[in-house]
TrEMBL record:
Pfam families: Aminotran_5. This is Aminotransferase class V-fold PLP-dependent enzyme. Keywords: Aminotransferase, Pyridoxal phosphate, Transferase. Transmembrane segments: none annotated. The keyword Transferase applies. Residues 33-353 form the Aminotransferase class V domain. GO terms for molecular function: transaminase activity.
Length: 396
């Protein structure tokens, strides 16, 4: 599988790249489309940015909406999920005593975002500990619902967690938040292209995801989704030509004829929109290569690698397989100098993989994409075994 697919990617041949989850990797055909947009922009910047941008920006919205189960009117294009989540966090009307309910598995940049918001508003973050190993949906949902109080204004959850590579079963928690009048804000940075999404069915108030990771679009392509009923709550981080003074009035239009949600947030001054415009090409590449079937192969390889390493470490996985991200798994390793192991894996073995300490666990977070192979997994296990003094299990 991987030999044929690897030719589509631009990754260095001297590096075993097992870290697709951090920034993704863009296939060659998609990258060429990206460069074509950039060249078109440079050949006539005023035509591209001044006369055609509004029309061009709508094309990815329509393609992505069809892929994610929503309307194009509910999506805006951004550079990354962190930006989308900052727009939400800094727009919501919070005050002293209000609580943001979240978990102990969140991405550090967003932990800082909510800390900043709390410093400005007087609200506070309440962190729920999710029991591990995660083996059933009720473990997660019961812990979240138990943390809800009459002071909870925001429920902030990762759909797929960054440090622990878990798929949180967020559906019942989101529904309960809606029932209680709590805003639900979902960090979907790792989700588009990784698991199938139906945003309207999920019903979260706000959902931001990256297209540059598992959807394999260029870096700088992401989206913010908001239900129509809550779009009026949002303010842009940057005030530019899309803003209008009457944007909060019922039925108001943005400066370019779309809703204020789209025009105010998408227009943030001059920027290169080429990554966002390339999203339809990324979706087409995935469809033409039956990428969901490839993802199934990747999941099997990831789970097999985690199982094999677990036999050497004797450490239990963080979850049952159904709660592990399909193409990404956080593999516990023995206590060690994680930054040193990370550096040595790259410098001595040419293996690019995150190794870090999360809470009291050392973790090697493996990503498996279509360009990866079993020999690469063997190389990783052999390298970790050598560095951590792990022994192969004895044959039965």
């Amino acid at each position: 599988m991987s030999d044929n697919l690897a030719r589509h990617f631009l990754l260095r041949e001297d590096v075993t790249f097992l870290n697709h989850g951090s920034f993704g990797a863009c296939p060659r055909p998609v990258f060429e489309t990206y460069q074509a947009f950039q060249l078109e922009l440079e050949r006539e910047p005023v035509e591209f940015l001044g006369r055609r941008l509004t029309e061009n920006m709508a094309v990815p919205r329509r393609a992505l909406a069809a892929e994610l189960g929503t309307s194009a009117d509910n999506i805006v294009g951004l550079t990354n999920a962190t930006t989308g989540l900052n727009i939400v966090a800094q727009s919501l009307d919070l005050k002293p005593g209000d609580q943001i309910l979240t978990t102990d598995h969140e991405y550090s940049a967003l932990e800082k975002t909510w800390a900043y918001v709390c410093r400005k508003t007087g609200a506070e973050v309440v962190v729920v500990t999710i029991p591990l190993p995660l083996v059933e949906e009720a473990q997660f949902t019961d812990a979240i619902i138990a943390g809800m109080t009459d002071k909870t204004r925001v429920l902030f959850l990762s759909h797929i967690t960054s440090p622990t590579a878990l798929v949180f079963p967020i559906e019942r928690a989101v529904a309960e938040a809606r029932r209680r009048g709590i805003w639900s804000v979902i960090d979907g940075a790792h989700t588009p292209g990784h698991i199938r999404l139906d945003l309207d069915a999920l019903g979260a108030d706000f959902y931001s995801g990256n297209c540059h990771k598992w959807m394999m679009a260029p870096k700088g392509s992401a989206f913010l989704h908001a239900r129509p009923e809550v779009q009026g709550l949002l303010d842009p981080l940057v005030i530019s030509h899309g803003w209008t003074a009457d944007s909060k009035l019922p039925g108001a239009k943005g400066a370019f004829g779309n809703s204020p949600f789209i025009d105010e947030i998408e227009m943030q001054g001059t920027r290169d929109p080429s990554p966002w415009l390339t999203v339809p090409a990324a979706i087409k590449f995935r469809q033409e290569n039956d990428w969901w079937a490839i993802a199934d192969h990747c999941r099997a390889l990831a789970q097999d690698t985690a199982r094999r390493l677990g036999e050497r470490t004797g450490l239990a996985p963080l979850s049952a397989p159904q709660f592990c991200a399909p193409q990404m798994v956080a593999m516990p390793i023995p206590d060690c100098d994680a930054p040193a192991i990370h550096t040595t894996l790259f410098e001595r073995y040419g293996i690019e993989i995150p190794v870090f300490k999360w809470q009291d666990r050392c973790i090697a977070r493996l990503s498996v994409q279509g360009y990866n192979s079993k020999p690469q997994m063997d190389r990783l296990i052999d390298a970790l075994s050598e560095l951590l003094n792990l022994k192969a299990p004895e044959a039965a």
